[in-house]
Amino acid sequence: MGKFNDLIITKGLYDPIKINLCDLDEMATFLMGKFVSLNNVDHFCPQCKEKSTFKHIIDNTHDRSINVAYENYKNELGFGREFNKQEAFNGFLNKSYTFNYQCARDKNHPLILFIFVTETEIVKIGQFPSLADLAIEDKQKYKSVLKEQYNEYNRAIGLFAHGIGIGAFVYLRRIIEKLVFNVFTKEKDKLNVSDDEFLKLRFDKKVAALKDYLPNSLTSRTNMYGIISKGIHELGEDECRAMFPLVKTGIELILDDIISAKERAEKEKQLDSFINNKTRELREK
């Protein structure tokens, strides 16, 4: 279901999806629940603590607002005239919709979505569990890398989940800055730069000074820091909320590279230890 499933997977509260007449058929399929299987989503279940498929179910306790005008339009009862298409589109507007999902692993684990449709947007106005709860898997994955910044990562996701974009950006920027400074602290004996000199450098210059020690996912995308800073100081909540999922992905790529490098270093250490010990053992025979 394309962009409409983004409401569940990536969109925070009040982060809208734009709609127009061209979206009528896809929007109708989504809102009317005509093809339930198409609305199923794969996501982490915070109660199972595992990846699962959430199956969309029709809950008869909520009015799904079956749109007679849309049915007539699709059946060409109005001879396919343009005003009938507009009438069908209008039939979905200014209404709220409830979407109920059940975890395929345990039907007692729900995912519930509350949506409102305006003349130009579909907006998520409520969700249970929250996006922050659904992100537990990612947060646990990065806990060992983030360490003391784990709480800031949680706060960024929590703020976004509650419709706050600029505040979420503040915490994301702190995470990037701290990651870079931690590398500087570890490697500064190899650099001809004092602490004070390093702190006074612009961010891109800091990255350039540490290019041999930072993940490529950061050194090749220093503009991401500029985008975050621009969002904090000059852009509005709507723009920051819209950008948050991709900016978060950028930070996760950096964290993924750090985790991968650590895992590789550990494997190399184990292999080198094995080779050295085995070589010595074989020589002594």
Tell me what you see in this structure.
The structure is a single chain. This protein has 285 residues and is α+β, with helices and mostly antiparallel strands. The chain folds into two domains: 2-128, no CATH class; 136-272. The protein has helices at residues 6-9, 24-32, 68-74, 82-90, 131-134, 136-146, 150-161, 166-187, 195-200, 203-209, 216-219, 223-233, 237-283, and strands at residues 17-18, 41-45, 50-57, 95-103, 110-117, 121-128. It has a six-stranded antiparallel β-sheet with strand order 1-6-5-4-3-2. Strand 2 (41-45) and strand 3 form a beta hairpin. Helix 7 runs antiparallel to helix 8 and helix 8 crosses helix 12 (223-233). 26% of the residues are buried.
Distance between the termini: 66 Å
Total discrete domains: 2
Low-confidence stretches: 60-65
Report the order of strands and helices: HEHEEHHEEEHHHHHHHHH
What is the number of helical segments per DSSP (H or I, 4+ residues)? Answer: 13
Classify the helix fraction into a percent range: 40-55%
- Note the main sheet: 6 strands, antiparallel
What strand line-up does the widest sheet have?
1-6-5-4-3-2
Overall number of strands? 6
Overall geometric form: globular
If you compute it from the alpha carbons, what radius of gyration comes out, rounded to the nearest whole angstrom?
Answer: 25 Å
Percent of residues in beta strands: 5-15%
Indicate the structural class. Answer: alpha+beta
Mean pLDDT figure: 83
